[in-house]
């Protein structure tokens, strides 16, 4: 009998570990608050690394300039490795700071009318040198059919840069990467039927209401079962677990930024057939995720 009572008591003890339905909301709220505090603390620590790292990178550049004395070939090689490692660490820091700002709601959109061709070509110029060093061909041809429309240029540049970096890392030497943009008619499935019919009465169905941007490569491709997970935080494909570059945040950040701009991002790929990452941006962004013009919270 005593053993039965003890067993019963143990059972009730384990039940107390499970929140009751009326406490679920409180438990969830406390968990979210704890998560935000932890994320903010990590972001603060990460931010504190920026200054000493910038100083170290500055000294490396000073040594490379040979203003402090001539260098041997071996010393130049060591400094190049140090500079490359410093840049990777800077990218890790920037990725995590962006991730923490997105996760805690500290990053807001700032839309301004602009030419998306200029934005895309500017990012291509920044990456052209690295692509040439790896013997990768990078193609982008401006599309004069793209209208001027409001978008957040710095954050769109970050998205394009992340997608190009992803192709750069996984496309073998001698491969090819294409960046393409075109007008697009985006019919949202979640829109109410009456709203769709009203919109169709106002304009022809063929009138573009979005811009589609794609980055395609001749890399190894992604198995279909990972087409959703590849955008998760800190996710790496099982075949790329030994990949030293990045924390698995590049695509996650790109997806969150595109979602915050009212768009959507997806991938089309098959193993051995390369990958094509595409996203849509509405020509008339919703104000739900943006700040008023002139206000920034970055």
Explained architecture:
By secondary structure, the protein is an alpha+beta fold. It has 8 helices and 7 strands. The strands form 2 sheets. Strands 2-4-5-7-6 form a 5-stranded mixed β-sheet. Strands 1-3 form a two-stranded antiparallel ribbon. A hairpin with a 5-residue loop joins strand 6 and strand 7. Helix 4 packs across helix 8 and helix 5 runs parallel beside helix 6. The radius of gyration is 24 Å and the shape is globular. The protein starts with a helix and ends in a 16-residue tail after the last strand.
Annotate the secondary structure layout:
Layout: H1 2-16, H2 24-48, H3 50-64, H4 73-103, E1 112-114, H5 116-133, E2 137-140, E3 149-151, H6 153-170, E4 176-184, H7 193-202, E5 210-217, H8 250-260, E6 264-269, E7 275-282
Parallel strand pairs: 2-4
Antiparallel strand pairs: 1-3, 4-5, 5-7, 6-7
Helix pairs in contact: 2-4, 3-4, 4-8, 5-6, 6-8
């Amino acid at each position: 009998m005593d053993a039965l009572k003890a067993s019963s008591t143990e059972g009730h003890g384990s039940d107390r570990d499970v929140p009751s339905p009326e406490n679920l909301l409180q438990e969830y709220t406390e968990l979210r608050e704890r998560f935000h505090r932890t994320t903010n603390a990590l972001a603060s620590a990460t931010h504190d690394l920026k200054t000493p790292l910038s100083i170290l990178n500055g000294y490396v550049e000073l040594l490379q300039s040979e203003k402090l004395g001539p260098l041997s070939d071996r010393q130049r090689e060591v400094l190049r490795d140090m500079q490359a490692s410093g840049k990777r660490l800077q990218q890790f820091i920037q990725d995590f700071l962006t991730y923490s700002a997105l996760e805690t709601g500290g990053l807001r959109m700032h839309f301004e009318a602009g030419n998306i061709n200029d934005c895309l070509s500017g990012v291509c110029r920044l990456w052209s040198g690295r692509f040439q060093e790896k013997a990768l061909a990078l193609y982008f041809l401006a599309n004069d059919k793209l209208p001027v429309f409001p978008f957040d240029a710095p954050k769109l540049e970050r998205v394009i840069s992340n997608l190009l970096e992803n192709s750069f890392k996984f496309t073998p030497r001698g491969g090819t990467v294409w960046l393409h943009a075109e007008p697009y008619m985006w019919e949202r499935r979640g829109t109410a039927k009456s709203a769709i019919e009203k919109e169709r009465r106002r304009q022809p169905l063929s009138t573009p209401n979005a811009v589609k941007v794609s980055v395609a490569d001749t890399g190894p491709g992604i198995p279909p079962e990972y087409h959703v997970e590849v955008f998760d935080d800190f996710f790496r494909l099982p075949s790329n677990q030994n990949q030293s570059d990045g924390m698995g945040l590049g695509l996650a950040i790109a997806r969150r930024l595109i979602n915050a701009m009212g768009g959507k991002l997806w991938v089309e790929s098959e193993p051995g057939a390369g990958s094509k990452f595409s996203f849509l941006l509405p020509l008339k962004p919703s104000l739900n995720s943006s700040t008023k013009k002139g206000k920034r919270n970055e």
